[in-house]
């Protein structure tokens, strides 16, 4: 890793030769079948992955560099299969993640109901300063929806985490979810004491698109 | 049991492949032959060749190589890819199987390679067909297959491995290779890193040594199973996975190490299996109970014994696991009318204080959580686990006691609580008097020595239970526990005083409703002997093993839902207990009268013997003598405080 000092931050080169200022590890978590892998593929490749994708080693990851006001944040996004086999997921799992994207499927009530358990586990086990975001995926499937947006918003508000609805299929809010994470991480890392405080909650509220009711 | 093996695979192997090395025309390795020919799996087709050639085998293959990669399915089950690639060979032979049959598959690969080089490919197909069509044999079963080709007969035989057996040197290739590459101290460091779910990377220039060390190291965790990322050999395209923020156990060919080190890897324990050097950013061994470390070190130092007694190595680690987690049963609880569950608090309280730090961390680990979940599920499903670990737990007796005996520090703790213990004894003596009174009430017809022996053994149980109960109550009292739903009795306390049928009059009431005198007694649990076990009555729930000096008693507890009308709707548990050593079975009805608060009040608040385990047999003997029960010579009775 070549390190050069530019504007006070060490700029590194990844294996593929891209420059970045700092790297962050983001983990996708949530029940099986909520669309974690699809979301990852949509973000990285801008494509929708249809059919099932099976990782041969039970884990997958993608790198993507996001530009946050001139700072290049390398997001290393990890997606592991099979968390659902654990009755509870212990802290070793999240130990070193900087951000957690917590997904549920708006057409699967059960996946939403499990969010509370996920949130309490995160509170118990993750790093104190971990960035958490709640994503209601598959919001394009309007007719099959069984989790109301208001419910999810309330749950998110109660837990003081931002919420947005995403569609790995249409791409709605997918980039925003990752950019918001990058922005929050970058602010945490580089903000000077006198700088205005960045609220990822406000940022997400301003930027997110609400899925249209008819599609 | 938390392992990630497919328990009932349909075939001995899923598919056999011959994979051709990358050449100048095609940069990628490709499958050139497969059996069964109609085997289709898109992902395997795409990924398997890369695992068969995880590095440039034309450059890095100093000797004939057997190595084994692992693929994880969507169901999180492991499939093993057993590979054979001799130096200079253009193809790699690979058997993909759900079964961890390393030695047998390597042997199969050798036979298949012989057929291939003798240009008897049809013989190879015949062998594969026979093996594929066999039902998976039972453990220990010996199979003999004969392949005739052009007048010559070739026999292929193997014995199906026993999954319950500990890995043995030199028969088990993985552990043997691991032992020859890594010294005792580094083995221990690696073991502790895995125990604490660190990121662990093993590297070697030999693929056979590499994957053997990964599989061997993971096997030492038994009865725990590594739950996280497990890639015994990482092909080039997966090398960046070493940046993973979660725990992993991976093998990396030494040619990729510069690339690994250039990545932003988090703290990783790295073992070089070629030089037996370990890079360990942690000091995890320091948090382990030092007596456990010392005894493991001593066991591992004895290399002669390791090579002579094949299971000594595996057993040394198993003993360590028994010391650390063998006491999990002390923390199993029965919820009021609900299933068995595990109490973390009781687990920590029931172990010696010097183990607390380590156990607190273990409770945070996925493999331990998974272990407990599986044990509890098994018990709640009416089954029990019978494996090398449980055997070792029963053989080692009360691990806790061993710790007490072995640690001088603990002896101090013990001495300081002796005074309190006396109070407990007094309490027990009072109880014993009540037992006497109670025995009068239920009219002892004629006393025979065998009955008295039974009576004695059960009273001894009571004594232990009594202490446990007092301990519990005092702890709960001081803690002001709000966990009211949790029955604070440890499951092991359920078998309380049980006069055998010889003692209890034959008209002993079957239903507690008709025995008011039982309800009046101060015992919060009364067990009424029922008939010898009836299999139909409830499912077996729990197996515990008591060591009684030389006599090992295996118990099987049975619980079922309370009978209707039992104790005005309060819980009544049917507990059956089977003494397998004597093949005798007994069944008890335990009635919970729940007078915990009242009893707790009778003992002063400073009585808190939770940091010691005390055998009160001697004192109970005295109490019994006070009751007029004397001159009993019973095998296995300890006297005095241990």
UniProtKB/TrEMBL annotation, chain A:
Entry annotated with the keyword Nucleotidyltransferase: no
Query: Keywords in UniProt for this one?
Result: GTP-binding, Hydrolase, Lipoprotein, Magnesium, Metal-binding, Nucleotide-binding, Prenylation, Protein transport, Transport
Among InterPro entries, the record links this protein to: P-loop_NTPase (IPR027417), Small_GTP-bd (IPR005225), Small_GTPase (IPR001806), Small_GTPase_Rab (IPR050305)
Swiss-Prot/TrEMBL catalytic activity:
GTP + H2O = GDP + phosphate + H(+)
Alphabetical list of Gene3D superfamilies matching this protein:
P-loop containing nucleotide triphosphate hydrolases
Alphabetically, the GO molecular function entries are:
G protein activity; GTP binding; metal ion binding
Please give a single GO biological process term from the UniProt record.
protein transport
Q: What is its EC number?
A: 3.6.5.2
Entry cofactors:
Mg(2+)
For this chain, the family text in UniProt reads: Belongs to the small GTPase superfamily. Rab family.
Name of this chain's protein: small monomeric GTPase
Native organism: Holothuria leucospilota (Black long sea cucumber)
Q: What is the lineage of its organism?
A: Eukaryota, Metazoa, Echinodermata, Eleutherozoa, Echinozoa
Automatic annotation (TrEMBL), chain B:
Instruction: Name the Gene Ontology biological process terms.
Output: endocytic recycling; endocytosis
The record's annotation in PROSITE patterns points to: DENN
Decide whether keyword Flavoprotein is in the record.
no
Q: Tell me the InterPro entries matching this sequence.
A: cDENN_dom (IPR001194), dDENN_dom (IPR005112), DENN_C (IPR043153), DENND1A/B/C (IPR040032), Tripartite_DENN (IPR037516), uDENN_dom (IPR005113)
Which Gene Ontology CC terms are recorded? clathrin-coated vesicle; cytosol
Location of this chain's protein in the cell? Cytoplasmic vesicle, Clathrin-coated vesicle
* All copies of domain UDENN, residue ranges: 13-382
Domain of life per record: Eukaryota
User: What Gene3D superfamilies does this protein's entry cite?
Assistant: 3.30.450.200, 3.40.50.11500, 6.10.140.1000
Q: What is its main location?
A: cytoplasm
Note whether Transmembrane occurs among the keywords.
Answer: no
Question: What SMART domains does its record include?
Answer: dDENN (SM00801), DENN (SM00799), uDENN (SM00800)
Q: Under the GO molecular function aspect, what terms does this record hold?
A: guanyl-nucleotide exchange factor activity; phosphatidylinositol phosphate binding
Keywords from the named record: Cytoplasmic vesicle, Guanine-nucleotide releasing factor
Q: What is this protein called?
A: DENN domain-containing protein 1A
């Amino acid at each position: 890793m070549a390190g050069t000092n530019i504007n006070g931050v060490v700029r590194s080169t990844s294996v593929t030769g891209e420059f970045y200022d700092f790297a962050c590890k983001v983990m996708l978590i949530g029940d099986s079948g909520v669309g974690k892998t699809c979301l990852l593929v949509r973000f990285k490749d801008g494509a929708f992955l249809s059919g099932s994708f099976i990782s041969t080693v039970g884990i997958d990851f993608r790198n993507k560099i996001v530009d946050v006001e001139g700072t290049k944040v390398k997001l290393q996004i990890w997606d592991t299969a099979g968390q659902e086999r654990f009755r509870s997921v212990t802290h070793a799992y999240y130990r070193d993640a900087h951000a957690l994207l917590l997904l549920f499927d708006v057409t699967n009530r059960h996946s939403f109901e499990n969010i509370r358990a996920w949130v309490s586990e995160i509170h118990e086990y993750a790093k104190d300063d971990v960035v958490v975001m709640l994503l209601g995926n598959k919001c394009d499937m309007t007719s099959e929806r069984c989790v109301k947006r208001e419910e999810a918003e309330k749950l998110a508000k109660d837990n003081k985490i931002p919420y947005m609805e995403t569609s790995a299929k249409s791409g709605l809010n997918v980039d925003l979810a990752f950019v918001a994470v990058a922005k929050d991480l970058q602010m945490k890392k580089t903000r000077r004491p006198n700088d205005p405080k960045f609220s990822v909650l406000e940022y997400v509220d301003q930027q997110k698109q609400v899925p249209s009711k008819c599609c | 049991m938390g392992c990630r093996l497919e328990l009932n695979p349909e075939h001995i192997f899923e598919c056999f492949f011959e994979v051709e090395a990358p050449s100048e025309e095609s940069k990628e390795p490709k499958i050139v032959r497969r059996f069964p020919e109609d085997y289709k799996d898109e992902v395997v087709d795409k990924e398997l060749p890369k695992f068969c050639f995880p590095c440039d085998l034309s450059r890095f293959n100093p000797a004939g190589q057997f190595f084994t990669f692992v693929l994880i399915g969507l169901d999180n089950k492991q499939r093993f890819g057993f590979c054979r690639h001799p130096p200079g060979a253009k193809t790699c032979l690979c058997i993909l199987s759900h079964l961890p049959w390393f030695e047998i598959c390597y042997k199969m690969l050798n036979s298949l390679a012989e057929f291939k080089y003798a240009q008897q490919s049809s013989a190879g197909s015949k062998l594969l067909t026979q093996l594929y069509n066999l039902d998976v044999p039972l453990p220990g079963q010996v199979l003999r297959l004969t392949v005739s080709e052009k007048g010559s007969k070739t026999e292929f035989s193997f014995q199906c491995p026993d999954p319950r057996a500990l890995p043995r040197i030199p028969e088990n290739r993985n552990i043997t290779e691991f032992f020859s590459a890594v010294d005792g101290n580094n083995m221990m460091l690696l073991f502790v890193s895995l125990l604490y779910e660190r990121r662990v990377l093993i590297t070697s220039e030999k693929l056979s040594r590499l994957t053997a060390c990964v599989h061997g190291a993971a096997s030492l965790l038994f009865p725990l199973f590594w739950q996280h990322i497990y890639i015994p050999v990482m092909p080039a395209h997966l090398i960046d996975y070493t940046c993973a923020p979660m725990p992993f156990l991976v093998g990396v060919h030494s040619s990729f190490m510069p690339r690994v080190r250039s990545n932003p890897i988090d703290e990783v324990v790295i073992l070089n299996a070629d030089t037996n050097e370990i890079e360990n950013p942690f000091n995890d061994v320091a948090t382990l109970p030092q007596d456990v470390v010392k005894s493991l070190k001593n066991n591992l130092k004895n290399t002669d014994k390791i090579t002579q007694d094949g299971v000594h190595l595996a057993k040394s680690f198993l003993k360590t696991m028994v010391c650390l987690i063998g006491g999990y049963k002390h923390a199993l609880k029965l919820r009021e009318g609900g299933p068995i569950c595990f109490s973390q608090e009781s687990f920590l309280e029931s172990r010696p204080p010097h183990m607390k730090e380590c156990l607190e961390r273990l409770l945070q680990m996925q493999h331990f959580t998974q272990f407990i979940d599986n044990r509890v599920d098994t018990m709640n499903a009416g089954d029990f686990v019978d494996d090398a670990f449980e055997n070792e737990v029963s053989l080692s007796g009360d691990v806790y006691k061993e710790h007490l005996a072995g640690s001088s520090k603990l002896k101090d703790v013990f001495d300081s609580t002796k005074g309190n213990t006396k109070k407990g004894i007094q309490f027990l003596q009072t109880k014993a008097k009540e037992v006497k009174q109670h025995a009068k009430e239920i009219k002892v017809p004629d006393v025979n020595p065998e009955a008295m022996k039974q009576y004695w053994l059960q009273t001894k149980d009571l004594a232990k239970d009594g202490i446990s109960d007092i301990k519990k109550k005092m702890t709960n009292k001081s803690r002001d526990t709000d966990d009211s739903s949790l029955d604070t009795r440890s499951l092991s306390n359920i078998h309380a005083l049980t006069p055998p049928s010889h003692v209890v009059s034959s008209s002993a009431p079957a239903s507690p409703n008709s025995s008011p005198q039982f309800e009046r007694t101060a015992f919060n649990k009364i067990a009424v002997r029922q008939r010898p076990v009836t299999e139909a009555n409830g499912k077996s729930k729990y197996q515990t093993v008591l060591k009684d000096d030389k006599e090992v008693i295996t118990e099987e507890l049975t619980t079922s839902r309370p009978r209707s009308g039992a104790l005005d709707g309060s819980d009544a548990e049917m507990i059956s207990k089977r003494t397998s050593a004597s093949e005798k079975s007994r069944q008890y009805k335990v009635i919970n009268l729940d007078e915990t608060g009242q009893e707790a009040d009778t003992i002063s608040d400073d009585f808190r013997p939770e940091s010691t385990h005390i055998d009160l047999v001697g004192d109970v003997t005295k109490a019994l003598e006070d009751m007029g029960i004397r001159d009993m010579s019973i095998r296995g009775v300890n006297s005095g405080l241990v």
